[in-house]
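REVIEWER CHECKLIST
Item 1: Sequence provided? yes
Item 2: Single chain? yes
Item 3: Sequence as submitted:
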Amino acid sequence: MDSIALSKKEFNNLKNLVYSTSGINLHEGKLELLKSKIAKRMRLTKKSFKDYLRYLDSNEKEVIEFIDTVTTNHSFFFRENKSIEYIISQFNLNPQKDRKEFKIWCAACSTGDEPYTVAVQLKNLGLSFSILATDISHTVLDIAARGIYKNDKIQKVPLPILRRFFQNGTGKYTGHIKIKKEITRHIVFEKFNLIADPLPQANFDAVLCRNVMIYFDLKTSEKVINKLYQAIIPKGFFAIGNAESLMNLNHKYKSIRKIPSLYIK
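Item 4: Structure as written out by the authors:
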């Protein structure tokens, strides 16, 4: 890493490339992190520093691989579950629930913990549903689609749900769990760029876009939340992360009392 001397111009070029591709805003406090991640990608691609920067500039797939390394995919089951619980409780009160398929979009699903968390709670109530789970990273989508996780991810899962919908691993998978097929069949995982890709055709009863705006500046956050607004049915829900806020952003969402991270269209 010491051999990487990232000039201000190179840093700004890299920052602009990542921003234009993903909306992720890399500030100068990320400089040392960037150096370490560049070194990692140099080793994997077997390229010199200058060659790697040229490669990155000309290869969008590599930009996404690079973005993978500089964003944190830290998640676990039932993380920040209060907003999800509220959404599901409202679905369960819907007078049409016995005839309705609830459509949910987890718009930055990472390794899949979030969509599976939503799915097991809906299934536990006997509600009909389908979930679109998307992310910009094919790496995390591959993990999500496998549905196999270390046991430390499931510590917050209620025991009855754990016993019903999770399968304990054996042999080389000792210490792991696998999501049962009765859950996975309700979820479709797809690659999606929140900045560049057109909205899915479906209209959703709820859209979750949590712990993504921490990487965006205000301009990009505003663009994304208003884009997602169009994908939500009237009176549908929009959830963000507990550390995020829609303050200082122009939008049409209405806040839900006592649940700061949850809004309604």
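Item 5: Key structural point noted by reviewer: The CA atoms of residues 10 and 159 lie 51 Å apart.
Item 6: Recommendation: ____
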